[in-house]
Automatic annotation (TrEMBL):
Active site location: H131 (proton donor/acceptor), C191 (acyl-thioester intermediate)
Name of this chain's protein: Sortase
Pfam family membership, one: Sortase
Record carries keyword 4Fe-4S: no
Entry keyword set: Hydrolase, Membrane, Transmembrane, Transmembrane helix
Transmembrane regions: 12-34
InterPro entries, A to Z: Sortase, Sortase_D_1, Sortase_dom-sf
The organism's place on the tree of life at top rank: Bacteria
A GO molecular function held by the record: hydrolase activity
Length: 224
């Protein structure tokens, strides 16, 4: 191949190679953005009045137990990923399934309980997360005094909201106490603002509620 042909091929292949590498780098850099955009598109396409129907991973069988005590040995607790409760706040028309676990896949179905927190009925804190685009979206209208219902297979629980806090994502740990065992409370939280771009919200809305009704779970004796 003479020098003239080599020079011609260089003029052809060098720009093509450079263009390909440029698109490759650009694709890598923009992939997080495209993931956010597709997530938003998917959520916008979903009707806000989602009918979750019968979940194949559901262990929820509603009961009419509202008080008293339940022996831990008589209780079958859910496994990770199971739909074990229904979260309801009538005044703001919030109703969503509650799963044991809070990974991305579960939060696309409803609300999720952090597995490092206690189940309803134990003394301690039950931490519940949900997306602000679906499961916990109505919670933006919650007010102190609202009643939260948690309907589980082993009992129905009522909690009263006593505090609402808006905090930066880097400080949320300061507003949680998962080690306390004096009260039976739930903490629900979601991203804020509600109309911000998915994945870019830097604040968290925390809603705190304390149990006012529901059976207490005991282990070999009545907890004081």
């Amino acid at each position: 191949m003479n020098k003239k042909h080599k020079k011609l091929l260089a003029y052809i292949y060098v720009p093509i190679t450079f263009t390909f590498l440029s698109y490759l780098v650009l694709g890598v850099l923009l992939s997080p953005f495209f993931e956010i955009v597709t997530s938003v598109a998917g959520m916008v396409a979903i009707n806000q009045n989602v009918n979750y129907g019968d979940q194949t991973d559901s262990v929820l069988n509603l009961t009419d137990i509202h008080d008293g005590f339940i022996e831990l040995k008589d209780l079958t607790l859910p496994n990770y990923g199971e739909h074990y409760a229904q979260l309801v706040i009538d005044r703001i028309e919030l109703e969503t399934p509650l799963y044991y676990g809070d990974d991305y896949a579960l939060l696309r179905k409803g609300a999720g309980q952090y597995i490092g927190s206690v189940f309803p009925g134990f003394k301690g804190t039950t931490l519940i997360a949900g997306h602000n685009t679906r499961g916990l979206r109505p919670i933006r209208n919650a007010e102190v005094g609202d009643i939260v219902n948690l309907q589980t297979s082993y009992g129905n629980y009522e909690y009263k909201i006593y505090d609402i806090q808006l905090v930066h994502e880097s400080e949320y740990a300061l507003y949680l106490d998962l080690s306390q065992t004096k009260k039976d409370i739930i903490v629900m939280y979601t991203c804020y603002p509600f109309d911000g771009l998915v994945g870019l919200a830097k604040q968290r809305l925390f809603v705190y509620a304390e149990k006012v009704k529901g059976p207490t779970i005991i282990d070999g004796g009545v907890n004081e």
